[in-house]
Fold these 4 entries.
Entry 1:
Amino acid sequence: MESMLKPMRSGDQDVLDKDASVTPQGGVNDTYGEDAATENVAITPWARLVASGLELLRNPKYNKGTGFTEEERDLHYLRGLLPPAVFTQDLQMERILNNLRQYETQLEKYVDIMDLQERNERLFYRVLIEHVEEMLPIVYTPTVGEACQKFGSIFRRPNGIYVSLKDKGKVLDILKNWPEKDVEVIVVTDGERILGLGDLGVQGMGIPIGKLALYVALGGIRPSTTLPVTIDVGTNNDSLLKDPFYIGLRQKRATGQEYDDLIHEFMMATKQAYGEKVLIQFEDFANHNAFRLLAKYSATHLVFNDDIQGTAAVALAGLLAALHLTGGTLSDHKYLLVGAGEAGSGIAEILALEISRQENKSVDEARKRIWLIDSKGLVTKARYESLQEFKKPFAHEHPPCSTLVSAIKAIKPTALIGTSGQFGAFTKEGLEELSAYQDLPIVFALSNPTSKSECTAEEAFLYTKGKCLFASGSPFPPVTYGDKTFVIGQSNNCYIFPGMGLGCVISGAIRVHDDMFLAAAEALAAQIRPEHLEKRQLFPSLKEIRSISAHIGAAVAAKAYQLGLATRLPQPEDLLSYAKRCMYTPTYRRYR
Ligand SMILES: NC(=O)C1=CN([C@@H]2O[C@H](COP(=O)(O)OP(=O)(O)OC[C@H]3O[C@@H](n4cnc5c(N)ncnc54)[C@H](OP(=O)(O)O)[C@@H]3O)[C@@H](O)[C@H]2O)C=CC1
Ligand SMILES: CC(=O)C(=O)O
Ligand SMILES: [Mg+2]
């Protein structure tokens, strides 16, 4: 049976062509190019197919594989195209997990599970949602890092949009090639700072794909509304430029005006294609672009930078949770942040903001509790003139300290937070010094992937003699020290961005405000219960993440309404139950 070609209903928002060039003045959408005003303009011949037979089996959105019922096999021309057995989705999931567990390497698991996303989307998300703790280290950090390093070699089927310098002037057309018109969340990278692995060029695409899989699985965003994007302006990674299997532009990175123009064209095109309320998450840009792009587009787009703001919120939630054990308030602590880039400065700023709100003091005053270390040592006033802008507010009067140990000795921090991307930066000596003058030192080793973590969980407990309150960016198994076993909370922005996205979508937010991140952090910290604290676990289990994301989503939405940034009116009475009801579920639907 041939697929039936079904014309679109006019007025269908899914397919309305929003290109200003084919929309006459007056704003009437001219889907079919029927207006005199657009006579000489090319239009897109959109069409919708009702899939059946082999086409249905090859469509990941609708394919159920062996999960198609007998009735569906008859109705949709599938009989004979599948082996006779009919599996439940549960049994299919068990088979997938059995197969995955046979592989020897994490990368093989990655390739296999991402292949499932391209074959049977609902089954993929069911596996992710129900086995989140097992699957996250595969589709996300640390394995996604290795996948990006080898992306050219393992590349099978494309997913997402690639915008390269070659596409200048055509970015809107490219977005139109994406089959979905109702895009709500975009994650975009230019691949220059992929986790702590540096410049991976276009191969950074693994990150937007992975992050958006988490938006769906962890935050309940509908898969059809997500769009991974990589902007390819070249790479300065010489080994990639020499690699015959490299899949990106083979040139050094464009900078300056050329770079800015392409990003600007992309940002404008997203609004033209998807409207004012499309959420854009900047991800893994190098910091020389990250801060200025965020500043530039925050005023005109619904945009945030995950590495700056998402990381800040998750770390703040961990610190708020730690207070249950240390006692006191945030301002009773002294913070030493090792790594003063996007993540480090982001955490420093949100901390200062939260302290200033809690203590009713100025942000400048609050900043005095917070110290930064970068690759040149302690950030001090003496270095002021040569510092990047985002470090300047934390440059305090102090003699220079070139090593971590000397800085710990001089400042006596109660919390040590690593975002340096330097494996082993938290040395035995440093951790011993930190635990010499306090009972419960806070140690966060947030750099990803695992190979870049400032210390392992085991080292943290060993060198602090079991005293520390530890969290890490990538997952670590529980650690036993003496007669106690500690569960390691993952201070990773994946606790925040799915709920942030959900909150923006359900409220119809038009801008992201810092207070929405504070609300997200507080909502996450509120999920900590005594049973977590008994194990010194500063983040709730990822098994609970869907419910956590709903709470964060509701808190973010509530803040958006309060700030007048929400457009979905009237405001639902019970935002939490509304958030839950809006979440995507991957169970198979019946087909008629
Ligand atoms: N857990 C999480 O959720 C997240 C973790 N991260 C991780 O954090 C790391 C950094 O990311 P990001 O902040 O975006 O990167 P940036 O490049 O913006 O910042 C890195 C910072 O580390 C500093 N640094 C480098 N070497 C040293 C050193 N030996 N000692 C002290 N500081 C050093 C750099 O110094 P200088 O300024 O002098 O160059 C810079 O300030 C990555 O590994 C990333 O994966 C990032 C986002 C989220
Ligand atoms: C988690 C994350 O966003 C990073 O490491 O860059
Ligand atoms: Mg990141």
Entry 2:
Amino acid sequence: MMASLSSLPFTVETKAEISALLHGNNRHRPRFPFVAYRQRKYKEVAFYKDFTCGFSLCCDKLSGEHLRRHWRAQVAGPESVDGEGGDESEDALQISIEKSKKVLAAQKDLLQQIAERRKLVSSIKDSVIDTTENEESNQQKADSSKNLEFASSGGAGTFDNQNGSIFSESTVPKTADKVSRTLPSAAGGVSNAGEKQPVQNITKIDPSTEIPPKHLKGTISRTVWSDDLPSFLATTSGTSDPNTEMHEGLLGTEHEETDSQIEDIKPPPLAGTNVMNVILVSAECAPWSKTGGLGDVAGSLPKALARRGHRVMVVAPKYDNYAEPQDAGIRKIYKVAGQDVEVTYFQAFIDGVDFVFIECPMFRHIGNNIYGGNRLDILKRMILFCKAAVEVPWHVPCGGVCYGDGNLVFIANDWHTALLPVYLKAYYRDNGLMKYTRSILVIHNIAHQGRGPVDDFSYVDLPQHYIDLFRLYDPVGGEHFNIFAAGLKTADRVVTVSHGYARELKTPEGGWGLHGIINENDWKLRGIVNGIDTREWNPQCDAHLTSDGYTNYSLETLHTGKPQCKAALQKELGLPIHPEVPVIGFIGRLDHQKGVDLIAEAIPWMVGQDVQLIMLGTGRQDLEQMLRQFESQHQDKIRGWVGFSVRTAHRITAGADILLMPSRFEPCGLNQLYAMNYGTIPVVHAVGGLRDTIQPFNPYDESGLGWTFDSADANKLIHALGNCLWTYREYKKSWEGLQRRGMTQDLSWDHAAQNYEEVLVAAKYQW
Ligand SMILES: Nc1ncnc2c1ncn2[C@@H]1O[C@H](COP(=O)(O)OP(=O)(O)O[C@H]2O[C@H](CO)[C@@H](O)[C@H](O)[C@H]2O)[C@@H](O)[C@H]1O
């Protein structure tokens, strides 16, 4: 066997890996047979594919013997499978190699011809576009909305499960006369328990003539046109079997390879063959809607995933009139608490990400109060949002092509969208649909769980036996209904936003009643520290530092730029402009979590120091009142800005010398990351993500990034802040070192995105 292998035109590593596949040597064993080969020379890849001959099972699932037998069957002919092939098999192998070479040459030829034809077609198109550009684009828009209408009609439309009607939904076409022109199947709705309906009016298309929009190229799932699937399944990436999916992945790779050969550009995506369709679903998304860190994450993580080559969508509610998203022309009706509610989908493509906004009267004009209203109001909004979001991949054709369910992973965030994994299971997977779609639930803050009386279960439209997922008992709330609990149990994977918080969640203090469930599901939990949007939060190009005396700055101009921002901040807030007086900032929600009361306890000490304190926040009314009071009592030293102002947050981050974060618990914390990127030194309670991200300053070896204190205690805060102020005043070089180390870290999302990708892959291959 090895003799045969050694005569093959593989590199040494490839041989080692194939040998590992055959003999079970894990050291060289690639995770999946095709992944390791993608970036190799085309010839070698093609040969290897030939070698495996579309043998698409994940090698993990194959025994070495199985592979050996398959190898012999493919290379030396079926007769050699049972006997020892010997010389005959060597000859057959040589013949096979020769054949493969010929096939490759022919393939190359063909590709060249295709390339020439494409060039010809595009030059003809270009000349036509000059004169008919507007007509063309209108036509394209019309075509895509036809596609979209069509996908909707056969999409996850109306279906009941065995327990009767779960939800009813009807399509409300914008224009009744729209007819599908290009989609391969129509009216293939799904009825009881996913039973297939006959597919009618099938118009087959030649996939080679349907060139996906440029931004989708190489990342969209391969479309398999099928006559006997419901239409929404027929337009997805042929994933009736993960083995097929793997093979599809291989074919997709081949296409990408050939495309890039043709165009002679485009390096492979960073994600390699792990490229996936990802839909992040969040109740808020910056810059359109934000009450805190969740909005920041939803606005920036998807872009980093897209940069790695994934096709990424964000789904968020549309709370106001946003400039960018356009009405996608789709209307759907969902049942919420027995009422029909119509939603409309809006859409924009920005920085490589599809942003889809769900608009309906329930969301309208609450941008300033996203979580406002009573418990039932919020619950109903989240039910509607999750029902609508889980169907987005069927209804909203981004760039003209719906995501479908192939290679698809949803990323839900916090309790607001924890119903999504449950709906995915109850409405789809339990009915044999979306079998290979996975869901990940990200915990940004376990303190908010979507709790209510057990009777709330009647609102969520789920089969009765699902009640056990939601039912939870704890000494504080007694027996109650808990949405986060159900999401955590149902999601394929769970992520939280730091390693420290992942540990804390398993303790009674940190798990807020859910620690039992988290411990039971420990195997699927992973901590990934958030990144920051380095375009949005970057002193070199921060748009909020270009007026009112502020200035952009970098590490090189820190010594002039930062003092200028500090002076501008002091001036803007009416504080005495003293360059040598340290400015301490605080930005955050005014609540128990953020430890504002610890700052309050430390105020008498602080005002005795030569410092200025600037606090920005909204939240609990008593704490807002407290901020106002501090300001009025210490006009020359304290500013308490009650409100939500992104611009002021940026300016404080740039102008302050020190950022205070005495949070009682902090799953990750973004402000300390922003601060370090601006040369502002954090003083934090070493908890959750703060402990993960702020290495304490060590004056002996001049290492570390800030000051930490180990318990939520005002005296500890004072002690840490005192040391910090002393260093600021007395040890300028150390201070500059702290600033430099903070500013030169890679805080971008790129590393975190890579970690998320590992979770996506783990979810994908999980049963
Ligand atoms: N009054 C105000 N005006 C303007 N901007 C304001 C503001 N108050 C807060 N912000 C901004 O909101 C964001 C707050 O983010 P954090 O991560 O610090 O906390 P939050 O508790 O909201 O997030 C939760 O989710 C995130 C994301 O995972 C975790 O980092 C965190 O630990 C967890 O509690 C920052 O961008 C901050 O500048």
Entry 3:
Amino acid sequence: SKIWHNNTTTIHGATDYPPIKREDILESAQYFMGVALLAAQRSRDPSTQVGACIVNEEKKIVGVGYNGMPNGCGDDTLPWRRSGDSPVETKYFYVCHAELNAIMNKNSADLKGCTIYVTLFPCNECSKLLIQAGIKNVIYLSDKYHDDEKTVASRRMLDLAGIPYQNSFVRMKAVG
Ligand SMILES: Nc1nc(=O)n([C@H]2C[C@H](O)[C@@H](COP(=O)(O)O)O2)cc1CO
Ligand SMILES: [Zn+2]
């Protein structure tokens, strides 16, 4: 091939030699959380937009999702309200969480051993899904509902299942 054909031709045909290795590439944890953040921007939730990116052991993306109403239910038909006279009139009975959508969108046979990058700490229901799907690691960004009962239950299950969860800021410092 033309790549490194001789001492003066680089991959793009420039004549720099020795070749210059780019050292300032995007670190992988930042890349995957970046994908999750981009997915979150697709959410129609007016108050909290969440994105999730599932990565396998080969560091390949195998699923991406964001919070939204179930397929075919119409983003503008069901309520996006946080509170109402009845819970039936709030979003909480209907919305699919980012983690659920990332799992359901998977393009691989299974998610065993995968890591999920999610922009908000998983709720108890999503942690059940992550555990049952075989996901082995959780990297999150925001933890704004840290003291909510659902989050307490979520951590309890992840702890028992031996699934570590790490704030991505810590991870980026540790790895990069
Ligand atoms: N990990 C999560 N993934 C998610 O997709 N969500 C979604 C459900 C709602 O659409 C929204 C939270 O709305 P709010 O209570 O902050 O207005 O984020 C919420 C959490 C946190 O439990
Ligand atoms: Zn959830």
Entry 4:
Amino acid sequence: MAGAAGRVVRRWYPSVLRSSLQVPALQLHMSKTAMRASQKDFESALSQVKRLKDPGNEVKLKLYALYKQATEGPCNTPKPGVFDLINKAKWDAWNALGSLPKETARQNYVDLVSGLSSSSDSSSQVKPEADRKQPGYETLVVTSEDSITKIMMNRPAKKNAITIQCLRVHKYQPSSSFSPTHSDVPSEMYNEIMLALKAASKDDSAITVLTGNGDYYSSGNDLSNFTDIPPEGIEEKAKSSAILLRDFVDCFIDFPKPLIAVVNGPAVGISVTILGLFDTVYASSRATFHTPFSHLGQSPEGCSSYTFPKIMGPAKAAEMLIFGKKLTAAEACAQGLVTEVFPDSTFQKEVWTRLKAYSKLPPNAMRISKQVIRNREKEKLRAINAEESRALQERWLSDECTNAVMNFLTRKAKL
Ligand SMILES: CCCC/C=C/CC(=O)SCCNC(=O)CCNC(=O)[C@H](O)C(C)(C)COP(=O)(O)OP(=O)(O)OC[C@H]1O[C@@H](n2cnc3c(N)ncnc32)[C@H](O)[C@@H]1OP(=O)(O)O
């Protein structure tokens, strides 16, 4: 396997697969014998594949197997051990191609990518407000209209799971190799949400909305964040993640304008806990609210250890935060976490009509009212946030957490 500088990171590979699915740059210097008619198509497919939406693990395995077969021929490595699930799945996929000729594998790879590209071009996934979209965000769609800045989490295929890792984009240079000089794209969602909130706090909008694209509001922390371990080690990763978490939650604590969550579907983990820091929470009748921290060997964040008992009383908060009880939208509304629930069929229409009316209210009055309501708690919330982040830093290093995350990533467990 080539070193980091010579690797191609396919954007949509989960980190757990990424480490071993990375295609060594040097392998992309095709051998002279492979320089046949379809090599150009193959190279173009290799470059095209990086721009595709995540096609799912099954297709990724097919692509991996065809790539290996096309460039190395039949599977020639020892079978990984039974507990090495990811590498075994990859080995099985490659080995299943038997003695398929390299040229056929190359052609099949090209055909597969071409099929994926056309289906992703005609995807029914709407590109909301493409014309009014603010540029520069990879994982969000941010728009400003009618005095409302709308921050929409935009990884619908991953249920809007919130990512940490900074994806590296390598530029393909057909004449030489994949360039080792890559640009770091600010494509991870925690930082992008912070940037969008900071920009919204200064723009001329009266209110700010956070919502999700697709059927989920957000499935919370992207669990593959845990697999992207830096060379400095897992302790360093836990430390930097705790700092990121603290900074992320501080942005919500400090946000100066009315902040509204438009919860379009199920919400999990940190996307639920921070709701206690919003001024208003509108939910679709399809939404659910789930904080399965104990199941994941983790502990509450987002100041929920303070805001939830305050909002719903300690007993109900404990049922959610310790035992992971999932609430329906109606239950969350009855507990005071949600302001109002709307039928899913009319959710968007009713909510946006309401918000447009609110956004016409005098912005300074709304801002001052928010400050009067929230300011006296800010210092306390910051201290709670720091304490929760410290507790999680330790939890992330525990066996309970590691096992729960691995169970999800190897598909043994789902919430
Ligand atoms: C640095 C700050 C850290 C702050 C810490 C916060 C703590 C939390 O937020 S805890 C909550 C963590 N979230 C979860 O545990 C949710 C895990 N996801 C699931 O259980 C399920 O995916 C689901 C119940 C949300 C949805 O199930 P469904 O069957 O409808 O869809 P899937 O096929 O499972 O999902 C589609 C696709 O999306 C990927 N995905 C969904 N959620 C996550 C996630 N949280 N992390 C990583 N990936 C996620 C899922 O793997 C699928 O991907 P593939 O299509 O590639 O298989």
